[in-house]
């Protein structure tokens, strides 16, 4: 593990894995928002035995490499020379072996839609969803839609884990949700209530 004063996505992922092992947790669904997205990817690739699935929320953030490393290059080189160029959000995408959903927003300047599209191309088995009418804090801006997407993903994990049919018949009085398939991005219109 890295020494004092040394921070990296890998060190954070390893620290979380150490905590999971210490607590004796079974494989977990790791949800990462923003910078937590690359952290979730790194956790899943470095510790696949501890990972059931990952959820990236506004977390397909190629922008962080620029924002934390290059944007203030001179200052970072003077004050934190070992961290410049260390954050590479795309590292490990090809090694992902667990279910993945990436939830993005159409008004997110930190994790914009082109980053989500690039992620979807790099990880074709991932499910991608855009919550329209939201910015970077999708879980606060559209909590109902956000919770619905997380619940659908977790329900799918349970069904697949129990080898149940992938698309059960809808309950009486309920409509079947729009299917989301790996490699296709679903867009959820901004028509639910917000707090």
Mean pLDDT level? 77
What would CATH call the class?
Answer: Alpha Beta
Outline type: globular
**Assembly level:** single chain
CATH architecture: 3-Layer(aba) Sandwich
Q: Total domains, how many?
A: 1
Summarize the biggest pleated sheet. Answer: 5 strands, parallel
SS summary, helix count: 7
Stretches where pLDDT falls below 50 for ≥5 residues? Answer: 69-73, 83-87, 163-179
Strand numbers in spatial order across the main sheet: 1-2-3-4-5
In angstroms, what is the radius of gyration? Answer: 18 Å
Helix amount: 25-40%
Characterise the protein shown here.
This protein is an alpha/beta fold and 195 residues long. It has a single domain (9-164, 181-188), classed as Alpha/Beta hydrolase fold, catalytic domain (Rossmann fold, 3-Layer(aba) Sandwich). Helices cover 38% and strands 14% of the residues. It contains seven helices and five strands. It has helices at 9-23, 36-46, 63-70, 73-79, 113-122, 138-141, 143-161; strands spanning 28-33, 51-57, 100-105, 127-131, 185-188. Strands 1-2-3-4-5 form a five-stranded parallel sheet, sandwiched between helices. Strand 3, helix 5 and strand 4 form a beta-alpha-beta unit. Helix 1 (9-23) crosses helix 2 (36-46).
């Amino acid at each position: 593990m890295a020494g004092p004063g040394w921070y990296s996505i890998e060190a954070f992922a390893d620290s979380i894995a150490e905590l999971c092992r210490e607590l004796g947790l079974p494989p977990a669904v790791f949800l990462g928002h923003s910078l937590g997205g690359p952290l979730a990817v790194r956790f899943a690739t470095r510790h696949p035995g501890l990972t059931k699935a990952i959820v990236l929320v506004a977390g397909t953030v190629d922008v962080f490499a620029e924002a934390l490393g290059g944007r203030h290059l001179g200052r970072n080189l003077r004050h934190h020379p070992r961290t410049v160029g260390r954050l590479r959000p795309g590292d490990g995408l090809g090694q992902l072996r667990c279910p993945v959903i990436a939830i993005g927003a159409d008004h997110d300047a930190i994790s914009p839609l082109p980053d989500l599209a690039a992620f979807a191309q790099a990880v074709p088995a991932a499910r991608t969803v855009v919550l329209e009418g939201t910015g970077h804090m999708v879980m606060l801006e559209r909590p109902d839609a956000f919770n619905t997407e997380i619940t659908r993903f977790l329900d799918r994990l349970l069904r697949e884990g129990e080898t149940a049919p992938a698309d059960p018949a809808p309950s009486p009085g309920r409509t079947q949700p729009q299917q989301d398939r790996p490699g296709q991005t679903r867009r959820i219109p901004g028509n639910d209530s917000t707090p």
